[in-house]
Amino acid sequence: MSTVVPPSPFAAGDGEQSSQPTAVVSQVPASAQPTAYAPTFDPTAYGGAPPASGQPGYGQPSYDQPWGAYPTPPGQPPTGAYPGAGYGPPPPAPRKRGWIGWLVGGVALVLVAGIVGTVLLLSGGSTLIGVSANSAAIPDADPAGVTDTIALDGSGQVQNVHVEASIAHPFTCDLTVTLISPQGTPVTLADPQDCSRANPGLQLNLDSTTPGSPLAPLVGQQAGGEWRLQVVDGVGIDQGQLTGWGLTVQTD
């Protein structure tokens, strides 16, 4: 069997197809296997100087780069969860506040301060608040009932008084509720005449500014001191309790 060198497509020096005949270079036994020829590729040979075209040199490919590890294009950096999200022109620079902005802000601040000062000047005085969360049983058929006290630390005359109370009782027609001022003036807050066991309990929410309010006689008295709430159960059948009460007093 003969080993034949294939004709070269180009002749050395002129770049044209060769017209030379094929030459036999050696003889090998017929039983021998043909030898496979393949070009040798050295990937490291391309990591040196750039090619003549001016492009950067080629190195070995890398397939372990993280997702999205690519050069950031100009503009705003990506903000999304996938490549290419969030690109666009950079946001405009924040505007600086000029003297007009500072002037407007100052005028608004002065107006707010003036309004607050006017409200305080017109309202005057002070506000005294007292709350009692004491839960006290109401004795049956006892004219003394149960009394709870709230002490207000302040001065001035009462301009307005507001009272709230919560009483648990199955039949509220048995009850009489009285508020006693620090000067000892009693005013009746509740004396129900129409009630039902289907609607147990008594909730009070009274203000002296309401026309016909039972609290009106307390206006003008001294606000500071001990305010007492008395609850009397005049019938010895059902039992109840005072669950809490409070009052707010505005003074001059």
Automatic annotation (TrEMBL):
Composition skew (Polar residues), residue ranges: 16-34
The P/Homo B domain, residue ranges: 118-252
PROSITE patterns cross-referenced by the UniProt entry: P_HOMO_B (PS51829)
InterPro entries: Galactose-bd-like_sf, P_dom
Keywords assigned by UniProt, alphabetized: Hydrolase, Membrane, Protease, Transmembrane, Transmembrane helix
Entry's transmembrane regions: 99-122
Example of a GO MF term: serine-type endopeptidase activity
Pfam families recorded: P_proprotein
Chain spans, region Disordered: 1-89
GO biological processes: proteolysis
Keyword Hydrolase: yes
Protein name stated in the entry: Proprotein convertase P-domain-containing protein
Natural source organism: Actinomycetospora succinea
